[in-house]
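Field log, afternoon session.

UNIT: design team B
ACTIVITY: writing a sequence onto a fixed backbone
BACKBONE:
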């Protein structure tokens, strides 16, 4: 009888324990090459400056955590290298996370940084490599032609080039960059608000798996390529989900900030198989997007339809060494 009572109490005790921390807070023992989400928010992060709406109020009231701007880390334990995708305003925190995930003993710069375009959330973190901060030496920064010219000819970024804090590495549409014997990165041009540079997504590929990363695009139907075909051809697809629907920012002209609404993406992908839908992870959330909280019905509906909602620390294996 006593043993039975102890067993029951043990079950109750375990059931009452708090949930495990996010993966980003746990020690990691890399078993192969992988990509990790280092941030999930739109350029201005969550919460946004000057926002006193209910969505940001959850943070100001201590009911929600801050979310870093969209960024990926690519970690290859085999060659002891790591790369960043996007240099965001949260660069210093994301570099720390990248080094922790890679098992680096010191906070060393990445082996390279890939930029999608010249909007504030995607490149301004480069400032942390300059003389006022890390004072780094020839960190490779991979950029498309217009993006490269923009950095070379506009301050303060041109100073990073002049002082050899960064080394600009030109890349071209649809031409793979060989990072290691087993890993390539291929830029793919996408339509977006290209005031200062072109905009690209990336296919990060190993000899085993492929990941598609498109944090910014105008609308799926204005692209001259098929997003559905891309999803079918890769193992993971991390896609722009800045806004859930057209009602999200009632005081803004949504046509001036075009992105595929999540409701439009759900319609776009409804014909995909269950397996292909499960490849899709929505990312790049505006502070107003209800997908930022698991408590919202929109979050539950998206997950119930078979899609993934990105979170900081989420990992995508590219090479399994086991």
């Amino acid at each position: 009888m006593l043993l039975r009572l102890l067993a029951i109490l043990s079950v109750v005790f375990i059931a009452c324990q708090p949930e495990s921390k996010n993966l980003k807070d746990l020690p990691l023992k890399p078993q192969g090459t992988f990509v990790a989400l280092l941030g999930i928010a739109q350029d201005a992060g969550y919460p946004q400056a000057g926002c006193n709406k209910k969505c940001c109020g959850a943070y100001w009231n201590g009911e929600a955590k801050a979310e870093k701007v969209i960024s990926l880390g690519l970690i290859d334990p085999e060659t002891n290298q790591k790369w960043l995708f996007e240099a965001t305003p949260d660069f210093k925190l994301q570099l720390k996370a990248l080094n922790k995930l890679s098992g680096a003993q010191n906070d060393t710069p990445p082996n390279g940084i890939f930029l999608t375009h010249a909007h504030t959330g995607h490149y301004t973190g480069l400032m942390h490599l300059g003389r006022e901060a890390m004072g780094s030496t020839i960190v490779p920064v991979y950029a498309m032609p217009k993006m490269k010219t923009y950095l070379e000819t506009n301050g303060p970024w041109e100073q990073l080039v002049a002082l050899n804090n960064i080394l600009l590495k030109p890349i071209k549409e649809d031409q793979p960059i060989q990072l290691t014997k087993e890993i390539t990165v291929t830029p793919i041009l996408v339509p977006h608000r290209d005031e200062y540079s072109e905009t690209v997504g990336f296919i990060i590929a190993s000899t085993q798996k492929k990941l598609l990363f498109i944090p910014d695009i105008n609308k799926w139907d204005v692209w001259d390529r098929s997003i559905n075909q891309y999803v079918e051809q890769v193992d993971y697809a991390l896609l722009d989900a800045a806004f859930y629907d057209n009602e999200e920012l009632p005081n803004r002209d949504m046509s001036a900030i075009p992105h595929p609404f999540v409701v439009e993406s759900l319609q776009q992908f409804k014909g995909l198989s269950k397996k292909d839908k499960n490849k899709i992870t929505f990312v790049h959330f505006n502070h107003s997007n209800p997908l930022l909280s698991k408590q919202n019905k929109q979050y539950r509906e998206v997950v119930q339809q078979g899609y993934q909602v990105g979170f900081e620390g989420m990992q995508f294996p590219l090479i399994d060494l086991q």
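LOG NOTE: The chain has one domain: 29-317.
NEXT ACTIVITY: expression trials, pending approval
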